[in-house]
Amino acid sequence: MTSSTDLGFVHRFVPGAADGPVLLLLHGTGGDESDLLPLGELLVPGAPRLSPRGKVLENGMPRFFRRLAEGVFDQEDLHRRAHELADFVDAAGRAYNFGGRKPIAVGFSNGANIAAAMLLLRPGTLGGALLIRAMVPFVPETMPSLHGEPVQVQAGEVDPLVPRSQAEALAELLRDAGANVTLRWIVGGHALTRSDVDAAKEWFGFSSLSRPAGQPQ
User: Fold this and answer.
1) pTM of the model
2) Is residue 212 within 8 Å of 22, Cβ to Cβ?
3) How many Å apart are CA 151 and CA 149, to the nearest integer?
């Protein structure tokens, strides 16, 4: 496992299989670069895992971009930070030799929101995304083309922070951009649950993301 402040972000990189997906793990508010490493190993055992720490501090808690209030994002900061994170991912791909593979983002809450913003602002940086408890980061003036990229949105049925309408709107927005979107409802609130893990493993297992190159789908 490599821990580094190189490439512009404090991050960890765990090497793994030379085929199958590379996972980009994006923590929620108050998390860090170690938070989602165990989740990544659960979802795709042996996959390379890249996990940066958000640069913004809110009351001492790391985040990937600023917000003005609960559910109200600082749009200027969001756009700048999404491009900055995409540049980091591109640089990490060269530094750690992803072999041309586009990482699959696995984001929770704030991490899921920055991943959704990257999909909309920098299409082609990611190869897909698992968005857990995400909401619409913004609505682009010009819709990107996501070319069927696989995305699963996992929403809590009684999430007090992300209204049902937001999860539905995000799924629809990404579909309009051409992504292949699955919206999964999880019994529970905003917290990550075992049901999230099971739904995510099912998504990875039934998609081509977790299969080595050349293996039948």
Assistant:
1) 0.93
2) no
3) 6
Helix axes 110-121, 75-95, angle to 10 degrees: 80
Catalytic residue among 19, 79, 176, 190: 190
The residue with tokens 């602002």 is 121
Separation CA 158–CA 30 (nearest Å): 22
Please list the rounded mean pLDDT of every run of 10 residues in the chain (217 residues): 79 94 97 98 97 97 96 96 98 96 98 98 97 98 95 98 97 98 97 97 76 35
Fold of 2-206: Rossmann fold (3.40.50)
Spatial neighbors of 31 by CB under 8 A, at least 6 apart, are 54, 62, 108, 111
For residue 199, which of 43, 76, 47, 64 has the smallest C-alpha distance? 43
The letter for the amino acid at 99 is G
Q: Where do the domains of the chain lie?
A: 2-206
27 is catalytic: no
| 190 is known as an active-site residue | yes
Q: Give the CA diameter of the chain.
A: 49
**Among 27, 35, 51, 159, the one annotated catalytic:** 159
Distances (CA, A) of 157 to 76, 77, 167, 187, 213: 30, 29, 10, 6, 36
Residue 111 CB-density burial (10 A; 0-12 exposed, 13-18 middle, 19+ buried)? buried
Residue at token pair 């899921």: 112
